[in-house]
Amino acid sequence: MPGTKSRAKALAAAVALKPQEWGAGFRAQQQAVSAPGTVALLNEQCRWERRALPKGVLGSLSRYSEIPAAGGKGELKVSAAVTVHTTVRDADEQLATTLEEPLRCRQQQVRTDEWISGLISNAMPYGQGNNTYSDDQVVEMGKYLTGKIQQTYYWHVTRLGTVTLAVSVKGAKGYSDKELATYAGNADASMLTRLKSELGGNN
After folding, report:
1. Does pTM surpass 0.90?
2. Which of 77, 124, 144, 161 could form a disulfide with 129 if both were Cys (CB 3.0 to 4.6 A apart)?
3. Which residues, in sequence order, are CB contacts of 55 under 8 Å at separation 6+?
């Protein structure tokens, strides 16, 4: 596992999915990559914001992609994030926080005109359910709100050692829940496979 900030930065850049790696039709959002040296955190006002890396985090990177609106379908937005922690305990706390945040913040502001609400969580530590591939995982499903429009939202957070992977999929007109879940699941699996490869694993 990475033990320095430089190694953490390189690992995050190698693992976080780029637009074309999500599939056909994806491109970078206008804000394509998170600011260097920051991590996404939910503040006391239930707003997501980028803050300087806290103690216990060596590096973090988020990439934002989309399929533009076309052919009667809306704009589909996705994100892929990799966060490298100092210890397993620090990484584990991120998953615990992920489970607790919907209780503290029933509605969370993602951007100026975007919110998520009604999150339902499912925790799957290694050996439970079908989780034979990671140390821990939290899958959440809720509603993505823009103005008066409401769509389905998926969020996966997966831990392997000191590294956490996060995938979000914000639904749009013309996309079924099954399609959205497939995008989220495939992206999560792809990053996990890449992470294991980067760390020298063979499965």
Report:
1. yes
2. 124
3. 86
Buried b (16+ CB within 10 A) or exposed e, 85-108: bbebebbbebbeebeebbeebeeb
Tens-digit pLDDT profile for residues 184-194:
999 999 999 99
pLDDT tens digits for range 97-156: 888 888 899 899 998 889 999 999 888 888 887 888 889 999 999 999 998 899 999 999
What is the C-alpha separation between 101 and 98, in angstroms, rounded? Answer: 6
Rounded to the nearest 10°, the torsion over CA 43, 49, 52, 55 is 40
Residue with tokens 């939910």: 42
Report the sign of the C-alpha dihedral through residues 202, 20, 8, 90, in that order. negative
